Amino acid sequence: KVVGSAMQLGGGSLDIAAGVQARNEDYSLTPSAATLSGDVIGLGGAITAVSARRTVWAMFAEANMPFTKQLEGTFAVRQDSYNDFGKTVNYKASGRYQPFSALLVRGSVGTGFKAPSLPALYTPQQINTSEQFVDPKFPGNGQIQVTSIAGGNPNLRPEKSDQYGFGIVLSPIKSITASFDFFNIKIKGLIASPSAQEIASGFRRGAPGYSSLVDVNGADEITLIRQLAGNVSQLETRGVDIDLRWRENIGGGRVDVGLNGTYTSKYDLINASGELEKSVGTIVRPDGAPLVAAGTGVILKWKHNLSAGYTYGPWSATLTQRFYKGYETAQDLDGNQHFVSSQSIFDLVASFNGIKNLKLALGVRNLADKNPPLFINNGSQFQAGYDIYQYDPRGRFVYGTVTYKFF
Fold this sequence. Notes:
By secondary structure, this protein is mainly β.
């Protein structure tokens, strides 16, 4: 990498950086004899050995341009060359304008690229047993499991994205800072692995993208599903990140209050069948079938961390509220909608750093030992009863840390 100054602009030096990068990616999995033969109960079948590699070359350049003391811009470009996917060129342009200390306006626009991982591409396809699911045509059969073909998909394509954002930072007085940043991200070719329930539900409602993923017997019962990762057509999400901070000296110490949250107004995914799935605040479609996005947890409409702390000499204590807005889960056994209510979890931590280079801390997570709300799963996760993405099953627990800096 080479870094230097090219010339002087109205706000300072025009700095540039340019460089090259090369890397090898290797993936190797050597199962034990028991997992290779499929003799471990609960794994659904054998785990096969994998060995794959690829080489990536890249060239990149970046320029920081302070046009004036108040206006600054940045531009970056990068070309990556994969021996298994060819070349891609992506860029980012950003700017910030601060007419006076109490106001800052900023924005950015750019593109992105993500190649499929080596395991997603080259894990051998093999016969296993699916996770449990309910066949919508035969709900009386309850939770069933069938033969599943799972593994890598050598036909995967890279994900490509376009994104832009803009925001404002306000500081009307020295002790208060507030920032609001809007974001919009669009991904084409999103890589996702379908759950057994998603496949069965899509097949039964006649979605064409799922017809090739299911085999049935003479009684029209599902006997086999194909759970290979694939490129979902498109995803677009937008929202606002909010950060509010207040700091004031009171009673010989310092008070710090902060709120950091995200409001997601849109998370629209077009699945393999071309169907639009609005995925904010729910893990199911209007008909109760699981959403593709549910495989990585619910997309919350609002979540935040609200903290209040006090520092007095070497002592400090902070109380934090972790909050998320309620959302819709899978339907109950009678086919009724079910919702998880909004939840707040409180954490407390105290620390002492009165000894040189040493910091001691004692904390409690989930201070009130609050139980999770009932969560009805739809095949998007293995655990039942509570949402593994929103709740820590340890409940309340106490921890301590000792940190010592040698330099």
